[in-house]
Amino acid sequence: VSRVIPVETFDLVIFGGTGDLARRKILPGLFRRFLAGQMPESSRIIGAARSELDADGYRKMIADAVAEFGGEESSNTKALQTFLERLDYVAIDAKGDGGWADLAKLVRPDVIQAFYFSVAPSLFGDLAERLHTNGIATEHSRIVVEKPFGRDLASAHALNATLAEHFDEKQIYRIDHYLGKETVQNLMAIRFGNVLFEPLWNNHYVDHIQITVSETVGVTGRGAYYDRSGAMRDMVQNHLMQLLCLIAMEPPGEFEADAVRDEKLKVIRALQPIDNHHIVRGQYDAGPDSQSYREDVENPRSFTESFIAMRCHIANWRWAGVPFYLRTGKKMKARSSEIAVVFKDLGHTIFEGDEARHRNILSIRLQPNEGIDLQVTIKEPGPGGMRLIDVPLDMTFADALGDDAEEVPDAYERLIMDVIRGNQTLFMRGDEVEAAWRWTDPLIEGWEARNDVPKLYEPGSAGPEDAMMLLHRDGRKWRDIK
Ligand code: NAD
């Protein structure tokens, strides 16, 4: 029995359809959904970008992209051929009139229409406007916008206002691909589908929470963009804060887009201001055979952070007194994303001589090996007496699902199909994005005004020493990055 949920016929227009994101993620993902049977026969994908290509030229480009980035599935050449037949292309100028009449002829008004804005945010307004002046968009069309969504509250607010001139909030899908991960949805299933966890999910039982997103890559390739944003804008304001919201939110009344997003918004609004003492900014240094951050971005005086660690507090009854430690960085020792809920120590132990600190830790891994495990304490097997050890109760899907695990769609695939289905649950609402900037803006303004110099850290490490101290001072320790 197939577990794939069918979708209705759609026309998906990808503005920026020749770009890096489209070739690396969007189209290979769509091909996988096609293979899974989620693309009704009459559906079309229309690339729209500046390059002067015809439909065949575009099909050739996408065939190459799928071969390069599509994984094993790309060897299915017969299916790929059928998929390519559903592609079309228009050369279009977001800022001019060229190509719009051709696009209007291609997009059908009576099927689901989705317009993916995989272009620089400075073009969002032009695209939104021209979709209307050329009579292409209808009140049922959906638009998908990529990050970055602004670089502060003012720019995000302006972007929201521009989109709102042309589209209703119900039509706007702001992508944060972290929310498309299987594990993120599973986090909600674990919390709200079991009786075991939710009663413990508060300051009576939780000691603290850690969220780590570490990358091994530096900024090469997009240095100019990155140097103007930094880890706080590029990672914390969106991805880490979204994860924090899902962990910390109150149970929504139903699993419905606005019910979930209302609860996330309340978390962001309850975040307390942080003082500098609880923020550590870092910048990677040169390594034995790698360049420093400043060399990578070609800015010898850059004060931008490629690493940040911080301690946050949520001012509400559930979380009063529970620190949330966030950290993210580039050129770290491993590529890993994890949320760890560290429960409190036992109040009293009955096991004489057991000096170790046994703790229950619920670890939610987004990469690598998406999955969830719960560290529990058991008796060490064998005749050694009452010796206790900690073992993981592993809920990794690859093991639980066996061969079916391959069918689990990746984040982009899932999110695009949610757009077609009209389900906004895993997309950020405009007010959420603005609330997040409202919290990060004063912090960023603070260090910019002081010319705060980030601490250097060794490439391949876990970040600057001060980040370790942030937890040591509280008698705690970061989890290993592995
Ligand atoms: P890219 O530079 O590789 O591609 C840009 C695309 O926009 C091209 O197809 C180009 O033809 C088109 N374009 C540019 N000017 C145009 C105009 N005036 N009219 C019509 N089309 C025009 O960029 P990318 O890396 O694919 O990124 C696209 C968007 O996605 C950006 O906003 C970026 O910040 C965001 N994003 C990218 C990634 C990634 O991994 N590449 C990840 C997250 C977010």
Keywords, separated by commas or semicolons:
six-stranded parallel beta sheet, single chain, nine-stranded mixed beta sheet, alpha/beta, 15 helices, 35% helix, 482 residues, binds nicotinamide-adenine-dinucleotide, globular
Give the SSE map.
Elements: E1 10-15, H1 20-35, E2 44-49, H2 55-69, H3 77-85, E3 87-91, H4 100-106, E4 112-117, H5 124-133, E5 142-145, H6 153-166, E6 172-174, H7 182-193, E7 206-214, H8 223-227, H9 230-248, H10 257-270, E8 279-284, H11 293-296, E9 307-312, E10 324-329, E11 336-343, E12 361-367, E13 371-379, E14 388-394, H12 397-401, H13 411-421, H14 430-450, E15 455-457, H15 465-472
Parallel strand pairs: 1-2, 1-4, 2-3, 4-5, 5-6, 7-10, 8-15
Antiparallel strand pairs: 7-11, 8-9, 9-10, 11-12, 12-13, 13-14
Helix pairs in contact: 1-2, 1-13, 5-6, 6-14, 9-10, 9-14, 10-14
Bound molecules: nicotinamide-adenine-dinucleotide.
Nicotinamide-adenine-dinucleotide binds at residues 15-22, 49-51, 92-95, 118-121, 123, 146-148.
Strand order of the largest sheet: 14-13-12-11-7-10-9-8-15
Number of helical runs? 15
Please provide the count of β strands: 15
> Structural class from helices and strands?
alpha/beta
- Mean pLDDT, to the nearest integer, reads 94
How are helices and strands ordered from N to C?
EHEHHEHEHEHEHEHHHEHEEEEEEHHHEH
User: Which outline best applies?
Assistant: globular
Q: What profile does the largest beta sheet have?
A: 9 strands, mixed
Q: Which parts are unreliable, with pLDDT below 50 for 5 consecutive residues or more?
A: none
Give the proportion of residues in helices: 25-40%
How big is the Rg? Answer: 24 Å
Strand content: 15-25%
Q: Could you tell me how far the N terminus lies from the C terminus, measured between alpha carbons in angstroms?
A: 37 Å
Organism: Yoonia litorea
Family: Belongs to the glucose-6-phosphate dehydrogenase family.
Protein name: Glucose-6-phosphate 1-dehydrogenase
Pathway: Carbohydrate degradation; pentose phosphate pathway; D-ribulose 5-phosphate from D-glucose 6-phosphate (oxidative stage): step 1/3
